[in-house]
Amino acid sequence: MGVWQRVSALLDPGATAAPREFTLGDRGQRPPEELAEVRRRLRETGESARAAVRRIDRFLDALQQAGQGGGPAPGADVGDLAASLDENLACLRAFFRAPDNIDVKFREILLGLHPPVRAAVLYIDGLVDSARIHMAVLEPLMLLAHMDHDLRPPQPAGDPGPGPQGGAPGQAGTPPAGRQDGRTGTRPDGPEPWRPLLERVLFRLLPGNQVEEKPTIEGVIDGILSGDTVILLDGVPRAVVVETKGFPVRSVTTPKQEMVIRGPLDAFNESIRMNIALIRRRIKDPRLVTEMIPVGRISRTFVAVMYISGVVNPKLPGEIKRRIASLDLDYVGTEGILEQFVEDRPFALFPQTLSTERPDRAAAYLAEGHAVILADNSPFALVVPVTWWSLMQTAEDYYIRWPYGSLLRSLRIIALLLAVLTGGIYIATVNFHQEMFPTELLLAIAAARERVPFPAALELLFMEFFFELVREAGIRIPSVIGPTIGIVGALILGQALVAARIASPVVIIITAISGLASFAIPNYSTAWGIRVLRFVFIFLGMTLGLYGIALGIFGVVLHLAALRSFGVPYLSPVAPFRAGAEDTLRREPLFYMEQRPRHVRPLDPWRQPEISRRWHSGAAGPAARPERRTRPPGSGTHGKGGTR
Predict the structure, then answer these.
(1) Do 233 and 101 fall within a single domain?
(2) Domains in the chain, number
(3) Average pLDDT, stretch 421-449?
(4) 19-46, pLDDT tens digit by residue?
(5) Helix (H) and strand (E) counts for the chain?
(6) Same domain assignment for residues 408 and 459
(7) Measured torsion, CA atoms of residues 507, 510, 512, 517, in degrees rounded to the nearest 10
(8) Is residue 5 part of a domain?
(9) Which one of 51, 431, 459, 562 counts the least CB within 10 Å of its CB?
């Protein structure tokens, strides 16, 4: 024995004490059988950790394969939940980078059963309602699980009645026969010893209105990231997802862009569930279908496709879902990003979808046979397919009498022509066609430009640029002083430019007319296209005169005629001509608009009979209403459709 071993033996109190003498040397030492149990648990934990790492690798490989355009093989194990709670928690902690990710909460609890069952509650702080988790999840699991109340009436003699807890039908803790689970739609058959415990939690303990069973890690991750609460049970290879969303949402407010004098005053907000509810509030029809598609590898933004089955052409929802599901990108924040990925001609000057913030307008398009696309976190909806005439209309056109609506549409068409052609025609006539001006007007224009040192084209381009600058500044500046900047910039600076002889009064009038006319365009994206075309026509008038203006008009019409929106010609129903063309430049009376727009090819072309004002014809009440005619569309006296 070495010197160091001898010194250690002398310093050890247990070595020098008598065999029967009491010492504190055994304090804190575990008995051999307990040490063996600890070693066994350590081995199991190590095996669970290694299995979790292997499953994470398989799941990441499957995700990488899907991101490269392929996909996991059918039936491949890309992340099924294990029966071990420790293994599932280790896998999920690795996915969520816990404990570095401080807002992802992992709380381990004991279910109040006999014997107690280990469980874990997972959620993201800030996306959930804490009070709902306490009342609908934690309190039933921890405090009420031991109660076994049976509120059913007494069974007749000979009926064994419900048992305390079992898996057979008729026992407590088991749902009635035929009760669906969240995975396969029917109660599974086969040896699943954990099924009674899971069904007890699903059907007896959790009072939430939306409770779902998930078998995969991917489903658990999606539920947590969506603001739900996930419950994992030890020994159960399934997860229970409880709807507990509670993130802050802006309330329903008035429209900011599509304001009306007469009509509803509610608008969409950033919650897709609330936006769907606003539409369903207006269409109380069970045929209204809402399909949800997640888009984006990182954002996982939920996109809803809404349509009325039996009215819409069945090819339209299929094409929309095909385009959305085939997108391969990381982030989709709003419907504006989604629009650029699904429209037919993304390089076109005008939009091929209609963006609206009004739920009443979206509901009206659904009733006509269109489809509506909603994106989470966006207060706008996309309506498809769309035509050029729809972009020049507003919801208020149908809320007022038809002569007023027709007048407003005529004003918008005139405003469109003024916004596009005023500057170009002025430059063309001043530079090349002075003989078109009356003599007095020509002399007045020449006198106003006598001391202006710039050519007419450069002067007009400078004023157009100045007007766009003032308009953009008025939008970006805080709303309190934004309108003031626009008024002051247009009046004071315009007057200063005339006094300094940098611009002539005629050019300022031309710029003001084209600018005000562009504000009358109801669609924001279309107004942007008009602003770009204004500069194009100024350049054509500056170089080719009125011949350039005519060439530009011809090119724009050809461009519009070549566009299609989800298979519908952009200039329908005028080119090609179809029934319903009367409701484009002018608005028909509502009782004459008997058919839905023919260019969307709805399954049900009729929205009302020929005689919809039955009181006027002297017919009986609703009980005597005749069946809807099935004649070919477009025949008859008033076979007219409409576009909104």
Answers:
(1) yes
(2) 3
(3) 87
(4) 554 444 444 455 666 667 767 766 766 6
(5) 23, 12
(6) yes
(7) -160
(8) no
(9) 562
Query: Which one, of 235, 243, 229, lies nearest residue 197 by Cα?
Result: 235
Q: How far apart are CA 363 and CA 361, in angstroms?
A: 5
Report how far residue 598's alpha carbon sits from residue 387's, in angstroms, rounded to the nearest whole number: 12
Average pLDDT of the segment spanning 538-542: 94
Predicted TM-score (pTM) of the model is 0.76
**pLDDT given for residue 58 in this prediction:** 63
* Per-residue pLDDT band at 2 (split at 50, 70, 90): low
* 509 lies in some domain: yes
Task: Give the CA angle between residues 513, 393, 268 to the nearest 5°.
Answer: 110
Q: How do strand 288-295 and strand 301-308 relate by DSSP bridges?
A: antiparallel
Residue 191 confidence (pLDDT) above 80: no
Please state, in angstroms and rounded to a whole number, the distance separating the CA atoms of residues 644 and 52: 56
Residue 246, CA atoms < 13 Å, CB-side half-sphere: 14
Nearest to 307 by CA among 384, 393, 387: 384
**Whether residue 380 is found in the same domain as residue 433:** no
* CB of 470 closer than 8 Å to CB of 490: yes
User: Looking at 539, 569, 599, which one is the last position of a domain?
Assistant: 569
Tell whether 283 and 235 lie within a shared domain: no
442 shares a domain with 336: no
Residues 435 and 564 in one domain: yes
Q: Are residues 372 and 407 in the same domain?
A: no
Q: Is 307 exposed, middle or buried (0-12, 13-18, 19+ CB in 10 A)?
A: buried
In this predicted model, what pLDDT tens digit does every residue of 559-586 receive, in sequence order?
Answer: 999 999 999 999 988 888 776 667 788 8
Rounded Cα distance between 216 and 239, Å, is: 8
CA distance 403 to 586: 9
- Of 339, 359, 386, at which residue does a domain stop? 386
Q: What is the pLDDT of residues 369-383, one digit of tens each?
A: 999 999 999 999 999
pLDDT tier at 101, thresholds 50, 70, 90: confident
Question: Which residue shows structure tokens 């050809």?
Answer: 558
Structural contact between residues 91 and 97, judged by C-beta atoms closer than 8 angstroms: no
What range does the domain containing 496 cover?
Answer: 402-569
Instruction: Establish if 18 belongs to a structural domain.
Output: no
Of the candidates 398, 368, 363, 362, the residue with the CA atom closest to the CA atom of residue 382: 362
Rounded to whole angstroms, the Cα distance separating 340 from 416 reads: 24
* 89 in Cβ contact with 232 (< 8 Å): yes
Please report which confidence band the pLDDT of residue 180 belongs to, taking 50, 70 and 90 as the band edges: very low
Confirm whether 638 is domain-assigned.
Answer: no
If asked whether residues 331 and 424 sit together in one domain, one would say: no
254, 255, 259, 262: CA torsion to nearest 10 = -50
